[in-house]
Amino acid sequence: MCPGFGRGLKLRLGLDREKFRKLGWLAAFAIGMAYVESAVVVYLRFLYYPDGFFVAGVAALSTVPRHILAIEIGREAATILMLAAVALLTARRSWWERLAFFLWTFAVWDVFYYIWLYAFLRWPRDLMTLDVLFMIPSIWIAPVALPLVVSGIMAVVAVVILKRM
Known about the structure:
Number of strands: 2
Number of domains: 1
Strand order of the largest sheet: 1-2
Radius of gyration: 17 Å
């Protein structure tokens, strides 16, 4: 990376050095967390979907035993808790700053979750591929494009909030 790249990006985002640095470290955490999350999904798919994973509805989860689905719901809750905790520990000023750091961390994590899945499995095949997005509070199924668009919006909102502080 060229030496002026970070400074130029910081100036374009309009953030002070401390906020920009924090976003970088939060992104690093989120990318690592996404690797771990996607690795778990690779293992689950290998175990329960050896012929490939295709979502046509809630029935796609019928091959996974109930106790494993319960553990998966707990994993999802733990992921959100970890993303929130690191954002809360990073913020110092207000709940708006905490919200901004959480939105940023969640957005980067979600995008890189799909990047890692693609790197490991060459999945999803395209952005309209259906996926089980979350199982909390109930099962959410949608094309992969949806969480990617929402994550992009969340990242922009996070930067806007931080610029106004």
